[in-house]
């Protein structure tokens, strides 16, 4: 009989501990539910600080590489310079390229590039007086509606 009472007591004690554990977890769950979920201010500050640091490193790297390139921007280190271009369609263009004292008019289509004309270097004329640049036209239209 003593053996049975010990088993009962240990089972009862174990059940009591289990009940206390469940109730304590329940109280913690209620406290956690009472606190609104969100991001703490320190976590937000750390994120912004890290983002600022990464962007700063990127800008410093670009600045440093430009200094190593002699102040020239990337892709413009040779004797060629694109003066202007005109889109004929989505896949066709005409480009004016400067090479020393010569201008070369080039036609570009998918799969090939052809020289259309070679000219001595000159000046690009301003926009014709009859034609208005888009920016000027847009400014006039927006001022007219006010």
Task: Please give a structural write-up.
It is a single chain. Helix content is 49%, strand content 22%. It is built from 3 helices and 4 strands. A 4-stranded antiparallel sheet has the order 1-2-3-4, with no helix packed on it. The protein is extended.
Radius of gyration: 38 Å
Helical percent range? Answer: 40-55%
Summed over residues and divided by their number, the pLDDT gives a mean of: 75
The number of distinct helices, counting runs of at least 4 residues, comes to 3
Q: Structural class, please?
A: alpha+beta
What does the overall shape look like?
extended
Cα-to-Cα separation, first versus last residue: 101 Å
Query: Main sheet: which strands, in order across?
Result: 1-2-3-4
Task: Give the number of DSSP strands.
Answer: 4
Strand content: 15-25%
Element order: H for helix, E for strand? HHEEEEH
Characterize the main sheet. 4 strands, antiparallel
Low-pLDDT stretches are: 4-9
